[in-house]
Amino acid sequence: MNYIEKYRYYILFFIFIVAVLVWLPIIVYGQNIGLKTWFFDVGQGDAIFLNFADGNQVLIDGGPDGKILQKLGKAMPFYDRDIDLIILTHPHKDHVFGIVEILKRYKVGKIVLSKINFDSAVYKEFMDIVKLKNIPLKYLGDGDIINVGNFAEFDFLSPELVEGLKNKDFAGENESFGAKGQSLNDSSLVMKFIFGNNSILFTGDVGVDIENTILLQRYNVKSDILKVGHHGSKYSSSEEFLKSVFPEYAVIQVGAKNKYGHPTEQTLGRLAKIGAKILRNDLDGDIIFISDGKELYKTKD
Fold it and tell me: Residue 150: what pLDDT?
C-alpha cells in the first residue's frame, strides 16, 4: 500500500477544508453585496427603506402618519426592531411624523438631519424622543459623505453647512404648502446614494433654486433612479436638472387624489421628455428595486 492510498481520506479531508476556507469568504462576500429598496406608499409623503444584504438598514423619512409601521412590518423580519440609520431630509410633517412613531418602537443607531430649528409640535416631539433615548444626531450637508457597510455611500449635495453657524430658525407657519413652506423645503438634505454601479438621487422637497445651485457646484448628479423632488410639484424638477440626472426611473412619492394636485402636468411632461420611466405610489403602490451592485431591477415584492 503506497503512501497516498494509505492516507487518502486524510488528504481528501484536508483538500475539503482548504476549499471551504478559500470559497466561504467569497460566497459570503457575494451574498452580502445586495440591496432591496422600498419607496413606500404612505400617502402624501416620503418614506424610503434600504435593506442591505450585509444587515445594514437605512430609513429616509417616515411619511405623514403611522402607516410606516405597517410597511416596515412587511419589509423587516418580525423580530428585528433595530434600524441602523435614519435620515430626515427636513422636518415637515409629511416626512417626520412617521419617524416619531418609529422612535417610540424601534432602536435607532443614528439620525442624520439638516441643521435647522423648526417650531412645530411634531418636530418638537421628535427632538424630545431623540434626547430622551440619547440617540446620536449628526448634522450633515454639502460635501459630507456617509458610508454604509463596505459597499455603499451617501454623498450629500445640499444644503450648505458651515461649521459654527447657528441653526436656521423656521416658524410653525412654514408647515404650510406653497411660498411659506418652500424655504423649509429648500433646507432638505439632497444626497446621491451610490451602491456599486447603481445610484439613486434623493432630493427631499427642494425647489428649482436649490437644483440650480447643485448644478452650479458641478456635482455628478447622473443617477439610475431619481426620487422626484417635492412630490412632483411645480416648484421642482427643472428641465435642466432632469437632463443632468437623466434617470432610467423617476419615482414620485405622492398620495392618491391629494389636494395639491401632485404631480403636476408640467413635471410629468418634463420627465416624459427625458424618457424616464415614471413610477408613482398613488398608481403603483409600494415601489421596490433590487440591486447586486451591478444591475438594478424593479420588482413586485
Answer: 86
pTM here is 0.86
Respond yes or no on whether the N-terminal peptide bond of residue 159 is cis (omega within 30° of 0).
Answer: yes
Q: Is the CB of residue 185 less than 8 Å from the CB of residue 204?
A: yes
Nearest to 286 by CA among 36, 17, 9, 8: 36
Read off the C-alpha cell for 53.
444584504
- Angle subtended at Cα 159 by Cα 86 and Cα 35, rounded to the nearest 5 degrees: 35
Edge-to-edge strands, sheet with 48-52 = 137-139, 107-113, 82-88, 57-60, 48-52, 35-39, 287-291, 296-299
Asked whether the beta carbons of 92 and 186 are under 8 A apart, the reply is: no
What single-letter DSSP state applies at residue 51? E
Is the CB of residue 222 less than 8 Å from the CB of residue 238?
A: no
CB 156 within 8 A of CB 143: yes
Q: What ranges make up the beta strands (E) of 100-180?
A: 107-113, 116-118, 137-139, 145-148, 152-158, 168-170
pLDDT tens-place string over residues 3-61: 556 556 665 666 666 554 444 443 443 455 699 999 999 999 999 999 999 999 999 99
Window from 110-119, 167-176, 263-272 with minimum mean pLDDT: 167-176
Please count the other Cβ atoms lying within 10 Å of the Cβ belonging to residue 28. Answer: 11
